[in-house]
Design goal:
Rossmann fold, 5 strands, single chain, five-stranded parallel beta sheet, globular, alpha/beta, 154 residues
């Protein structure tokens, strides 16, 4: 059973699914610098459970998280097949040697917002900021409509 932190409305939660300690250290450092509350997962079940419990703003997963190949990555597969309404709240980043950083076709193919080659983790802060800005711009009309519907203005 995982220990869950209480997340306040003002917190910016991020979920990590990383097996490589170097990637984990880099991602935690960058996310803390950007004022995110970071939760790290230990396996696929923990990842899926945590993702279902909170609306994480950022999710970073490694292509070989707790497995030998991307085809065996059960957490990523569950995320990919999850309805968009359940995962729209999170910008998802996938780290792996088989990707070219910010390749939009590779990201689309993996059903994530961005793919990152490990050699580009030194630019992770800029990559996260760029993808979040793009995602906010893309979803602004959708989010505005949701707010208006909740207020009964539509």
């Amino acid at each position: 059973m995982a220990d869950f932190d209480f997340i306040r409305p003002t917190d910016k939660p991020a979920l990590l699914a990383l097996s490589t300690m170097e990637y984990l250290a880099t991602c935690k450092s960058v996310l803390h610098e950007l004022d995110y509350m970071v939760h790290n997962t230990s396996d696929h079940e923990d990842f899926v459970n945590r993702f279902g419990q909170f609306q994480y703003q950022i999710t970073i997963i490694e292509e070989r998280f707790s497995c030998a190949s991307i085809e065996e990555n059960l957490g990523l597969m569950r995320l990919q097949y999850m309805p968009m309404t359940l995962r729209r709240h999170s910008a998802t980043f996938l780290i792996g040697d088989s990707f070219q950083s910010l390749n939009t076709l590779q990201a689309f193919h993996q059903s994530v917002h961005a793919v990152i080659h490990p050699s580009d983790l030194g630019s992770l802060k800029q990559i996260i900021q760029q993808i979040l800005a793009d995602n906010d711009l893309f979803l602004s009309v959708y989010r505005d409509t949701q707010i208006k519907m909740a207020q009964g203005k539509l």
